[in-house]
Amino acid sequence: MELSILSCIVCLIVTSILIHFILNRKKPNLPPGPRSLPIIGNLLDIGDRPHKYLADLAKIYGPIASLKLGQVNAIVVSSPETIRQVLETHDQVLSTRAIPDGARVFDHDKLGTLWVAPISPIWKNVRKLFKTRLFSQKSLEVSESIRQAKIKELLNSVRESAVKGEVVDVGAAAFRTALNIMSCSIWSMDLADTNSEMVKQFQSRFRGVMEAFGRTNVSDFFPVVKKFDIQGVRRRNSVHLRKIFDLIDEMIDGRLKMQESLGFTPKIDALYHLLNLDEEKNGEILMDRNQIGHLILKITFLK
Q1: How many C-beta neighbours within 10 Å does residue 122 have?
Q2: For the segment 44-73, what is each residue's pLDDT rounded down to a tens digit?
Q3: What is the pTM assigned to this prediction?
Q4: Is omega for the bond preceding 118 within 30 degrees of 0, making it cis?
Q5: Domain limits of the chain?
Q6: Phi, psi of 231, deg, nearest 5
């Protein structure tokens, strides 16, 4: 009985894909690219080394090429000059991003700056916040000592391993250092501190979020089946993101209590700026707590 139901679901999905393919078989005006198979396009060509495949693609078709990833048309830009045209000269026209289906939970697709599309007041507001507060020259100067300290820790760790004759995983060490620099700059928390219970929770939830967003999702390549959430990616992401947002709420509550009890906060980090935006009322930079949570998630995980 269960096998019959599963067979019916598979047949329904395949039929839906075929119907959508037939109705949308008119080929758009795209840059040159490799021939694609019906329905699945070039998905099988990419393989497990996509960077090598795309590099080979550029040698054949030049700096701009097109791929068919399932039902999705993808444009590959590979040369520095072309990338500059996309990101600088025509950034407002080409700034729209494809939104992963897994990000469509808790309105993260609407409040997460990486995927806000088209350009909206929220996007402009956050961009202004980055420029004037979070990544301003003054803010970067204040956090310079943090970056220097973390680089010194990295060098000391490498030296200790060299003295002991131990192998150093350069990729893991660099990633840990970069993550610690970012976390200390955002909310004054060192993610390498395994003695902290909150850090342990954060690391666990961080892994869950990264695994959830890194998982291949058929809905991203075949939007016709998106509503079914076949692999349960949205459902799992909802669980992981809820835990992350709960942890962010705890940190915000702790910071607000600190400010209330001390009358000031000794930690001038990104969280400090986000919680003290009332000074920018006329500049339209005010953000509610929900937006702050999504923004912290964004600049921490780039998700």
Answers
A1: 16
A2: 888 888 889 999 999 999 999 999 988 888
A3: 0.67
A4: yes
A5: 28-94, 123-134+194-301
A6: -90, 0
